[in-house]
């Protein structure tokens, strides 16, 4: 047991320590310590950013596929109400669509947003949607009847096509589960997929278009919906050129 202090004997404890029980404040970080912390944060960011980028790309891919599935459903609903017949699409580019046809499909319950790929979301603008009074510019390809730029062997006039399509002297088998109805707008100009010249503006500046789902300067692939209603992903290396004029469209 500690002996009581004698009256009048000065205490050897510092007054501030005895009164508060707190130790002396710690000194601030040194420059070296601060640099080490910054370096650790930079390393963690370099590890996390690619992971976050891949997760965002995956989310866009899934959303895009869901959009195209809804496009296919709307076409099926229209066809079911019109003896399996699908409306003509027209247009100058493969992503052009007759305004009346789009209005008919919109009446089946889907929205404008599903016609644009989430991985190229900046293209979903009113000045694109209302580019002309007679047709609309979309962010996907609708392979419907009378699509001017698409080779005629890609046109779909009905939901129940004959088993063989004849074009000249050639015959093409048509299997609904393998027959493309709509696809991502994977496009190029002279082998360039990242800066397609077209007349549109974004944030007040004239811009160029690009393919969705890019990996560097080339597309990774694209989503498609088929005549039977199912949607799937197709790698770019398995795509073929589908247009006969204008910009090159692949799916």
Description:
With 251 residues, the protein is an alpha+beta fold. It has one domain. 27% of the residues lie in helices and 22% in strands. The chain has four helices and 14 strands. The protein is elongated. The mean pLDDT is 85.
- Gross geometry: elongated
Indicate the structural class. Answer: alpha+beta
Averaged pLDDT, please? Answer: 85
Ranges with pLDDT <50 over ≥5 residues?
none
Number of domains: 1
- Number of β-strand runs: 14
- Percentage of residues in helical conformation: 25-40%
With strands numbered from the N-terminus, the spatial order across the biggest sheet is 3-6-12-13
**Count of helical regions:** 4
> What is the element string, with H for helices and E for strands?
HHEHHEEEEEEEEEEEEE
List keywords for this structure.
4 helices, 27% helix, two-stranded antiparallel ribbon, 22% strand, 251 residues, 4-stranded antiparallel β-sheet, single chain, alpha+beta
Report a brief summary of the structure.
With 251 residues, the protein is an alpha+beta fold.
């Amino acid at each position: 047991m500690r002996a009581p202090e004698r009256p009048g004997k000065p205490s050897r404890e510092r007054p501030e320590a005895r009164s508060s029980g707190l130790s002396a404040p710690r000194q601030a970080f040194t420059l070296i310590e601060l640099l080490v912390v910054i370096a650790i944060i930079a390393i963690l960011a370099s590890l996390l950013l690619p992971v976050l980028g891949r997760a965002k790309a995956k989310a866009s891919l899934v959303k895009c596929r869901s959009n195209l599935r809804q496009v296919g459903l709307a076409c099926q609903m229209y066809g079911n109400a019109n003896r399996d017949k699908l409306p003509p699409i027209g247009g100058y580019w493969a992503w052009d669509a007759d305004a009346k046809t789009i209005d008919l499909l919109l009446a089946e319950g889907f929205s404008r947003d599903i016609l644009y790929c989430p991985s190229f979301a900046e293209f979903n603008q009113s000045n694109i949607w209302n580019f002309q009074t007679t047709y609309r510019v979309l962010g996907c390809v609708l392979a419907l009847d009378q699509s001017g730029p698409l080779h005629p062997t890609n046109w779909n006039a009905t939901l129940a096509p004959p088993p063989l399509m004849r074009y000249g002297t050639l015959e093409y088998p048509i299997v609904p589960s393998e027959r493309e109805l709509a696809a991502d707008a994977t496009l190029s100009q002279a082998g360039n997929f990242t800066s397609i010249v077209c007349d549109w503006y974004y944030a007040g500046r004239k811009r160029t278009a690009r393919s969705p789902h890019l990996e560097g300067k080339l597309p990774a692939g694209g989503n498609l919906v088929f005549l039977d209603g199912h949607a799937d992903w197709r790698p770019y290396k398995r795509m073929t050129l589908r247009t006969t004029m204008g910009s090159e469209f692949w799916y």
